[in-house]
Amino acid sequence: MTVRAERHANPADLPFAVPEFWTGQKLTWSVIARVDGQAYSLFGVPIPGSGVKAASLQSAEYTATHTTFTLSAGPASFVLDFMSPIAPLDLVRQSLPFSYITVSACGINGATPDVQVYSDIDNSWIGQFGFDVQTTWGYATTAANTQVFTLTPGGTATYSEVNDMAQWGTAVYCARGGTNTSARVGLLDVVRGDFAANGSLSGPWAWQPGSVVGYSQDLGKISGFTNTMFAVGYWRQAAINYMGKARTAYFTSSCQGVNCGCVHALLDFEAADAEARALDATLTSMATAVGGDKYSDIVALSARQAFGAMDLTISADTLDTNDVMAFVKEISSDGNVNTVDVIYPLAPILYVMAPEYLRLLLEPIMQYSMTGAWPHDYTIHDIGSNYPNATGHNDGNAESMPIEECGNLLTLAYMYQQATGDTKWATQYDSLLHQYAEYLVVNGLYPTQQLSTDDGAGSAANQSGLAIKAAIGLNAYGAMSGHSNYSEYGKQFATVLYEHSVGVDSGKTHFVLVENTDDTWGLEFNLYMDVLLNLSTFPTEAYAMQTSYYPSVRGAAGVALDSRVDWGKTDWMIFAASTAMAKGVGNTEVRDMFVDDVHAFMSNGLNAVPFSDKYFVESNGSDVQGTFVGYRARPVVGGHFGLLALGGPGQLQVGAGESHKKRVISKRLVV
Does the N-terminal or the C-terminal CB of the chain have fewer CB atoms within 10 Å? Predict the structure, then answer.
């Protein structure tokens, strides 16, 4: 979910801003405060009702886990803090499908105003936007004074989506409070008007088209900061269809059902918030030290987006916590499941924060491939055309990227092994990995006409970038398996490409896009994994050569993907920036050039969409430099952690991990 104004681009318009799903569907979610009898819209009220004033935004900031706004409303100041936990070491917390909004209020200049806070949502959260759609609502008061509203669509199919919004499951809105909390179901204008007039909610409960579910909390007369908090989420018992069997969220291993999950989310808030703030501080410090303030901004904006695309699951039948798999959606392009060349750019954030996730994402791919249902001798592109249906491609009809995906998979498997020391995982799949390595030996040096990961640029034969990927993948397999002959194959490929100039121009100034074609060039982001994993497939001179070339082809807003196009990719730019910092190269000017360009795009105010990884670097006709190209909210922004990853695996593992998991499970059972 992203918050931006329906007609306003300025953050100062927050009181009128309409939250949006990442594809642009507008969601109902409001916060209104009543101060000494006067109602003020704080957020999500595009058309305030009679007698409702707009609060005034004072400041806005974001971290990796929090987005925080400060507003003034009469004699009171309010802080709206939106928090989405990132806790990859705690599988329970990370798998909870909940985020939080905390509303804090205090008096200004010694005032002690009387304050009530209201918030509501509607069935847009379950993808139901028509006036006559079927919606079932529920309400319960559970343990620890937790109040739970639920909204469930009717007449929809499990695992179905419309415009990328899930059409099955239940939206959940929770609050904690006792006699100071009131709730109501009714028409939006009626319920909000009730609060504005009375500071509480009463009257008949009746769902009809145009209704909301809402809470009111009476904070009383306040001086110092007084808080109220809500949790919102979307619960799916059957979360993923994996080869015809349902998988569900990990946290259900010890607690099933909507209410239990909501109770735990609220009870866990303080611990989740403390962990999130520790992560924010550590990430800011580390990223600033590695790449400066602008780089810190980039990774902070990327973190939630990367983790938000993943489902952490176990079998719905067994609830076996030893059977953990992660699934990621190829958001904003084609909706594929566990696309190998999406996991590849996502990988740096996992390498830094939770290397085990590399295995969790690859495991579904390997288990499916081991069934033999995929009829080709190269790595599958994805394991499902439409998330969350990870049902494979038994007919062999998946997007064809044979060199790309073989190289990616071998490199990722070695990345996991190097980061964790786990040699057993790859060993059990060695028959497949060996098959893919053999495919690269035969086909990798001079690729036939085919796509690379950047399929939007079109296919081409003899792409140097694919041959580079094949070389590094072969070396990675040799290092991982102990079969040194494959490392030799990879280094022989590198010798042909670099030393024999098949992959570089005749002046040896840069790698070419198409082998033996001087007037082409490309952003050779594939060199990054060679640097990160210390494989030395290519010599340091190759990294230095390519790094030095980039300023000569820099466009007005950045370096394009290659000589064919006028757009660039932010993940690959940071891969290139990271390669520039290889041992023996250390080109900080080029590193900073890429960081500056990505940051300038991110902050130029031209793009009212979630962080896009693809944008125009030159203006050309209707193409305007600095504007995004199609993609939005994609998990590949995990690649922005490339510079941080050079410091080694697992360096940002903030949190108590397994010990915390056991504690919160025990706490939940008591509840």
Answer: C
